[in-house]
Amino acid sequence: MNPIITHEIKAYSFFSALAKENISLARIHIHFFLKNIPNSSNPPSLKNRFISLIKASGLALRALLLCLPLINKIPKLPSKEAVLGAVSKDGMLLEYVPAHLKEDIEIVNAAIKNNPEALSFASKQVVLTVVGENGMLLQYVPEDLKEDIEIVNAAIKNNPEALSFVSREVASGFIIQRSELLKYASNDLKEDQDFILELIPEPDMSEWESFRTEHSKLRVNCSQDFAFSQVPKILKHISLKLKEDSDFMVRVVEKNFWALLECASGKVEKDVLDAMQSKGKDLSGLKKFTQNYKARLNSA
Do 197 and 254 form a contact (C-beta atoms < 8 A)? Predict the structure, then answer.
């Protein structure tokens, strides 16, 4: 890598930052000098106001002097091609690249190809484009942008596994809308019983009566697809550990009886049915259906 180009990129960033800082401080002092003296017992003294004016003038002059090296080097500032070559060899130089070049997707792509962590220096719009093409790069995005719904949505649309890089709060919002995303969430969210219970919908009792009528006529072939379509989809994505937890499955079935069809084993199913029976809820019809259905599966 050309050390002169690297030096120029860093110098531009350094002098620009210092000049902006001095101008910002100068504006604060000017504001203090110009503001109306409040009608209070302890207004800013005239002396302090003039001190602020002197400080503002000094800071403005310093900012101008800091800009002189930049003005002098404008014709010599690295071209896009030179910057592209530099970040291709050291992606982290993107931090010092002028703002307008940080918006250049070609330069950003070259930088993150060398070092994905360089994505932390790109703008939101560039990040949105990048993660839309490679969702897994979301892990290198600044934390504040990982809270941006638009960016996270673009990332998981490209690769659902990107959901594992966002906060619990952001992830839960997406899972509520798309239950299948639960399998890509962090382990603590996958095993959060209260969170999963919140996602279990209440059953449609009119559908249950319809199912019982159909089943009582032994039209199992007609009703089995319907029955399994009623099982809360979220249960297809929870961990086996939870499906084998009888206490948890009792809570789930108590909220939505169709969940009985997702019990991990005969023991869990028996525990659930016994618990529901003790609560005065007879699921014998659904039990008979599951037995018939599983028998058909085993004989197939």
Answer: no
Domain-by-domain residue ranges, the chain? 3-77, 123-185, 205-299
Q: How far is CA 87 from CA 15, 82, 93, 138, in A?
A: 20, 9, 6, 20
Give tens-digit pLDDT for 222-231.
Answer: 455 555 556 6
Half-sphere exposure of 1 (CA within 13 A, CB side): 16
Q: Which residue has the tokens 């403005």?
A: 60
The pair of three-digit structure tokens given for residue 285, joined into one six-digit string: 């019809």
Q: Measuring CA to CA, which residue among 178, 180, 144, 186 is closest to residue 162?
A: 186
- Arithmetic mean of pLDDT, 77-86: 78
Q: Which residues contact 273 (CB under 8 A, 6 or more apart)?
A: 260, 283, 287
Looking at residue 262, what DSSP letter applies?
Answer: G
Per the structure block, which two tokens stand in for 12? Answer: 């531009």
Long-range Cβ contact pairs of 125-130 (< 8 A, separation 24 or more) = 126/102, 127/151, 128/154, 129/105, 130/105
Give 91 or 16, the one with higher predicted confidence: 91
d(CA 98, CA 125): 16
Amino acid type, 115? N
Residue 176 is encoded by which pair of tokens?
Answer: 């509520």
- Which of left, alpha, beta for 114 (phi over 0: left; psi -120 to 50: alpha)? alpha
Task: Tell me the pTM.
Answer: 0.61
CB 108 within 8 A of CB 130: yes
Q: What is the DSSP letter of 202?
A: P
Could you report the per-residue pLDDT of 170-188, keeping only the tens digit for each? Answer: 998 999 888 889 889 888 8
| Among 16, 44, 17, residue whose Cα is nearest residue 31 | 44
List pLDDT tens digits, range 227-279. 555 667 788 788 888 888 989 988 988 888 777 777 767 788 888 888 887 87
Looking at residue 97, its amino acid is V
